[in-house]
Amino acid sequence: MKIKDLIISQIKKKGQIDVGEFIELCQFSDNGYYINNNPIGQNNDFITSPEISQMFGEIIGVFLINFWEKHIQRDFNLIELGPGAGTLTEDIIRVATINKDFLNSTNLFLIEKNQVLIKKQKDRLSNLNVKNLKWCKNFDIKNDKPSIVYSNEFFDCFPIRQFFRKQKWYEKIIKYNNSKKLFNFESEEIKNEKLLQSLEKFNYAGVAEISKTRKNYYDSVCKFIKNNKGIFFTIDYGYKTFPKNFSLQTIHRHKKTHLFDNLGNQDITAHVNFDELIKVANYNKLTIESFSNQKDFLLGCGLKERKEQLQNNQDEIVSKKIELDYERLTSKSQMGDIFKVLITTCL
Predict the structure, then answer these.
(1) Which of 19, 215, 231, 236 has the lowest tally of Cβ within 10 angstroms?
(2) Per the confidence metrics, is the pTM higher than 0.90?
(3) CA dist 47 → 84, 152, 264, 275, 326 (Å)
(4) CATH classification of 35-157+211-346, choosing from 3.20.20.70, 3.40.630.40, 3.40.50.12710, 3.40.50.410?
């Protein structure tokens, strides 16, 4: 069934759906965007940090290898959530050639549902010098090895519900006008006491975006780290204090669009509530090793020095490209501030 028909069918059954249900159907149903499309790349919908520059993956690789050397030093799981085109993992494994013991101890798991991306990942990664490489649709790893779990731009894609306050709290809902053949937003007053209590902390902002599935997924990985020991390394764009405006955005071919456009064929994301993720980690008794913006993390781990190494003996054109990539990763007006890094551990 086409995405539009599927959504209309659900609205007819229920009378209305919330924004989260709409996103879930667009992105994760059988013909959904994240199941059947290749969203990443200059000719597709968006580009991520690993595709911008090798420096990004190299810095993360060195950081994770150093963690393994200090705290694990034995057979372990290396797990990426939502590996995209496989570029980040490729860079990490390339850097890991500096430590053969790390490579020989690696059991690599890639958590991915998208068959198009799995093919790209296999084309890119199948020749890596890793003894065990497996793909999994869900985070359901059954061993008890210590683990390094990492993700980049993974938690932003989880469906969110949207709420706003005008003396009382309301939720944005979606209906379908059959005569005009159009979807439209309406609002519904919140009367559920438990939900109202959870919205109280957003009274100052007047708006809220809540993702139960994101919180639950993060909780499941935290529990895994708690049981197995290791590190959970997350980079995503987001906030610790809600920014007083909705963050939901839709992108098609690198241009902003409307939620009701290109159903099943555009990227739909929302900023990650890192305050909530930190609370989930604390609830699971993980240690918050670090929370910072992307700029501070990358510079603190030697990005500037790596940039200068790469620029050595390069012509002006290549050197300028490296500089522009560096600026894109670290500039406040680009990715340096809006992207956050959360590192949690259990040793």
Answers:
(1) 215
(2) yes
(3) 10, 12, 18, 26, 15
(4) 3.40.50.12710
